Amino acid sequence: MLKARWRSFLALAFVVTCVSLGSLYIARAPVLSWLGSLMIVVDPIQASDAILVLDGSYFGEREIVATDLYKDGYAPRVVVTLGYEPQSSEILRQRSVRPASPKEFKLLLLGELGVPDDAIVVLEEGIESTFDEAKLVAEWVDDESIGSLILVTTRFHSARALYIFQRVFDDRNVRLTMYPTSVDYFNPETWWRNRTTLRIGLFELQKLLFYRLFY
To answer: What is the sign, positive or negative, of the torsion defined by CA atoms of 38, 43, 48, 51?
Structure first.
């Protein structure tokens, strides 16, 4: 009798497990698409005092969007932040290689795309995270009496970046508009199907949850 009940329990557990796994498999696409959408924020674009190109990408997509916004007259200045310069930059300069640093690369891109030098603002202090970046930009905003900013970053980074900037700018009367790129490779509908974007997406979701819980 005990063995029969045990077999019945195992059979029921097996059926429940199969049904649960099957349901998860069927629902994976809408659930994962929803998770992908949580990483992305796009605000209605409006005229502002400056366009901020967030640091962290060296593929040029952020500079392309910032240039288009500048040329369309949404802001008179393009602001660039910088990570710490790698040790290889000095070696590249010694060997007459240009651009030799992230700063040189960004300025070259913006210049070639058509942003004049006098419209570019470089915040020279090195940053290590989006939180450091927000604090640095907040100091610049205070010094320059900026009332509105357009934030340009990659799509998967937009929700977390906007949340961090909103927290740091909490006591400032500054309008923040998030306008992420539309030319990067992250697609919220299919991000889990590619190894690179899957890794990026999972890591970004972890960081987004962390900031939501602790900041």
So the answer is: positive
> Which residue range(s) make up the domain with 182?
50-214
* Overall pTM surpassing 0.90 (yes/no): no
Cβ neighbours of residue 107 under 8 Å, at least 6 residues apart?
Answer: 80, 99, 120, 122
Residue 137: closest CA among 101, 179, 102, 168: 168
Outline where the chain has alpha helix (H): 2-38, 61-71, 88-94, 102-113, 130-144, 155-168, 195-214
Contact 53, 68 (CB under 8 A): no
**Which helix or strand (DSSP H or E) is residue 118 part of?**
none
Distance CA 120, CA 81 (A): 11
Whole-number Å distance between alpha carbons of 64 and 197: 21
27 is a domain residue: no
Look at residue 102 and tell me if it is in a domain: yes
Count of other CB atoms within 10 angstroms of residue 190: 13
Q: What's the rounded Cα separation, in Å, for the pair 115 and 12?
A: 67
Q: Which of 187, 211, 213 is nearest to 200 (CA)?
A: 187
pLDDT tens digit string along 61-90? 999 999 999 999 999 999 999 988 888 988
Whether omega before 99 lies within 30 degrees of 0, making that bond cis, reads yes
